[in-house]
Amino acid sequence: MVDDPDFADSPEWDEGNTRLPDAAAKLKAARAALLMSQGDFAKLLGIPVATLQNWEQRRTHPDPVARTLIDLIADDPREMRKRLEKRSAA
User: How far apart are the C-alpha atoms of 54 and 14, rounded to whole Å?
Assistant: First the structure.
């Protein structure tokens, strides 16, 4: 519960409803922003398509390093796409 009187009149505000997007939501949003298929996005990330599908469908969860990469991609999908494409071209 929030003890700040400024929030007392906002019943919709509490710690229970402040969910942040998870890795699956971030991946889907970034992929949609880039207009990429799962296959193309998986190739860009250097992972199997099945891994991306499992992450997006929440059957499995990315490890901490992959979550960091997902956060970076979600913050700026277009710039990270350029960087990842540059890396794979080298």
Answer: 31
> Domain 21-89: which topology?
434 Repressor (Amino-terminal Domain) (1.10.260)
Per domain, the residue ranges of the chain are 21-89
The pair of structure tokens assigned to 40 is 């193309």
- The 10s digit of each residue's pLDDT in 15-48 is 555 556 899 999 999 999 999 999 999 999 999 9
pTM of the model: 0.74
Using CA atoms of 4, 9, 10, 12 in order, give the dihedral in degrees to the nearest 10.
110
Q: CA torsion angle for 58, 67, 20, 14 (degrees, to 10)?
A: 100
